[in-house]
């Protein structure tokens, strides 16, 4: 099997996470839905194999790169999610009250926003639908970039997501947070009027999980643990930024993800600080991914030219 430099970079991260997951599962004695996760791993492995088939047998680099990217995305999502759960219970005090005070200094109060939104139930339903498009957008973008022959852009997209996720997990480990919905309550009239993907009940589940940790992991019941920085915001910024680099096709993605911002606040139960942190995380991840990709490409060119310095030379 042969992989491109960016693909090998992501495979290394996936392998590292997989090793850490295995060690933590044994050390913590956490149960795991082997069948459920095995089916997802098999899906990712199938996509990798399909990509290799099209790259070497059918000689279709576009389909090959797309299938491999999709496989890597699936596998990274699995090992990253398991690792995030295995960091529980929390080692540090949640910073949500601090983030709420930051929001207050900016004149933002989450319950007031949701209460106002409850006056427009139809808009709440639309925002819920938009909030649920994050992962489907990723799939569509993988297909557009890969099948469109924009392999470098595809790899930059993937690496930005991987590095952004790593940054979010590391930040969350040392400065845990579960979002505004974990510290505020809402009246029944408000929660009945606005369907919330992550309301106070969801926030309470996260707080309980953070306090006691997980005893059994299954892909059928995965909660979004990270409040700050909002990875939903990272994903939205990625979708808009990379699709805009494809020309006019990016305009619908830009508009969709502009509306995604209030959806993240209302439906995702996030602090305003979470969203601002997500935008910052995206900017850093985008720059780091570009620098890493350039270095990988430079190293590959040097190897092909036979000018890579050997140790001691």
From TrEMBL:
Start and end of every Inositolphosphotransferase Aur1/Ipt1 domain?
99-288
Q: According to the lineage, what is the superkingdom? A: Bacteria
**Keywords of this entry:** Membrane, Transmembrane, Transmembrane helix
Membrane found in the keyword field: yes
Fetch the InterPro entries from UniProt. Answer: Aur1/Ipt1 (IPR026841)
Q: Could you list the residue ranges that cross the membrane?
A: 9-30, 36-54, 66-87, 125-145, 157-175, 222-244, 251-269, 275-293
Q: Which GO terms describe its cellular component?
A: membrane
Pfam families per the record?
A: PAP2_3
Tell me what this protein is called.
Answer: PAP2 superfamily protein
| Organism of derivation | Rhizobium tibeticum
């Amino acid at each position: 099997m042969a992989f491109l430099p960016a693909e090998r970079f992501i495979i290394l991260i996936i392998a590292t996470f997989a090793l850490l997951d295995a060690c933590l599962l044994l050390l913590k004695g956490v149960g795991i839905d082997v069948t459920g996760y095995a089916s997802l791993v098999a899906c990712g492995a199938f996509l990798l194999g399909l990509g290799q088939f099209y790259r070497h047998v059918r000689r279709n680099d576009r389909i090959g790169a797309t299938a491999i990217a999709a496989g890597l995305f699936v596998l990274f999502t699995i090992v990253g999610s398991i690792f995030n759960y295995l960091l529980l219970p929390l080692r540090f005090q949640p910073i949500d009250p601090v983030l709420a005070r930051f929001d207050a200094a900016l004149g933002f109060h989450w319950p007031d926003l949701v209460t106002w939104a409850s006056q427009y139930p139809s808009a709440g339903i639309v925002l819920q639908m938009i909030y649920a498009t994050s992962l489907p957008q990723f799939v569509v973008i993988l297909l557009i970039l890969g099948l469109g022959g924009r392999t470098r852009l595809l790899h930059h997209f993937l690496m930005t997501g991987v590095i952004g996720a790593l940054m979010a997990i590391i930040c969350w480990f040392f400065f845990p947070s579960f979002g505004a919905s974990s510290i505020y309550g809402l009246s029944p009239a408000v929660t009945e009027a606005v369907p919330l993907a992550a309301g106070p009940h969801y926030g309470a589940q996260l707080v309980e999980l953070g306090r006691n940790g997980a005893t059994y992991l299954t892909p059928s019941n995965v909660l979004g643990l990270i409040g700050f920085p909002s990875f939903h915001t990272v994903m939205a910024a990625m979708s808009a930024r990379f699709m805009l680099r494809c020309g006019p096709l990016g305009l619908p993605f830009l508009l969709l993800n502009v509306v995604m911002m209030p959806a993240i606040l209302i439906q995702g139960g996030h602090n305003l600080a979470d969203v601002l942190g997500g935008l910052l995380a995206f900017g850093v991840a985008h720059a780091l991914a570009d620098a890493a990709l350039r270095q990988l490409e430079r190293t590959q060119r040097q190897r092909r030219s036979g000018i890579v310095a050997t140790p001691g030379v």
